[in-house]
Amino acid sequence: MKKRKKGFSILYIALCFLFFYVPILVMMVFSFNSSRSLTKFEGFSIRWYEQLLADSEIMGAVSVSVSIAVLATLISTVLGTLTAIGLSKTRRVLKEWVLNVNNLPIMNPDIVTAIGLMILFSSMKFDKGYMTMLLSHVLFCTPYVITSVYPKVRQFDNNLANAAMDLGASPFQTLVKVIVPCIKPGIFAGMLLAFTMSFDDFVISYFVTGNGVQNISIIVYNMTKRTNPTINALSTIVIAVILLALLIGNVVPMLVNRKKNKGLKEGKL
To answer: Rounded to whole angstroms, what are the CA distances from 26 to 16, 29, 225?
Structure first.
């Protein structure tokens, strides 16, 4: 009976993986198709990658997506981390109120947030474009950073910060050299989540952009209205970059820890 349940679980997991990853694999294969067909593979070619790199509109969208994602991640990480640290020092009533308010953008549907921001920028006579998109991304990324960092702040021992200040450290030195290293896992998790949310966003970006400013999500949406195999090449490159980032993020810490452990063993010997 247990073996049957185990076999069913393995089959179920395998089917889930196939459902999620086979379409991506098919898309990557057809990005090298020599024809425009999205259903019949007629030969190997890199023509769509060449066309992608030669398309100034697509490359402009890539630069907008990357720059906004990086800036929004950095700004929201700083704001979210400082807010999470500040919440740990506030009174319980105010803390609970702020945390509940922080959950609203996370639970709120993207379309509602997008329409609200569009009305806000229009009423304030903002010229919609790069800056409005950046502000919007910072706004909806910051709550995710707070949610990721705050649990680590709660686990932090305040006696360490007090001891550092008693030994002569300034508040800024205590923050940088004591608090931040202790809550670093939460900060990294918030950064990755913020970057993913910003880079992947379509709904909010579509409503707050203007003046010809487009990110990857918007350009891909426009490309789906007509048969354009370049979308496969663009998606494949994005997936390759994400896989490379994940590989570096997992391998580099492993190598650093291995080097530290080797140094400790050599020191003991």
So the answer is: 16, 5, 20
Q: State residue 77's pLDDT score.
A: 93
Burial 123-158 (b: 16+ CB within 10 A, else e): eeeeebebebbbbbbbbbbbbbbbbbbbebbeebee
Q: How far apart are CA 151 and CA 183, in angstroms?
A: 9
Cβ neighbours of 257 (radius 10 Å): 10
> Do the Cβ atoms of 132 and 209 come closer than 8 Å?
yes
Closest CA to 82 of 180, 192, 185: 180
Look up residue 45 and give its two tokens. 């070619």
Beta-carbon contacts of residue 208 (< 8 Å; ≥ 6 apart): 114, 117, 118, 121, 128, 132, 133, 136
Confidence of residue 129 (pLDDT cuts 50, 70, 90): confident
Judge whether residue 193 has pLDDT over 70: yes
What pLDDT is stored for residue 76 in this prediction? Answer: 94
Q: Which two tokens stand for residue 17?
A: 């993986």
List all residues 6 or more positions away from 122 whose beta carbon is below 8 Å from its beta carbon. 128
Q: Which helix (H) or strand (E) holds 108?
A: none
CA distance 85 to 98: 13
Better pLDDT: 206 or 2: 206
Question: Tens digit of pLDDT for each residue in 216-227?
Answer: 888 888 877 676
* pTM score, whole prediction: 0.80
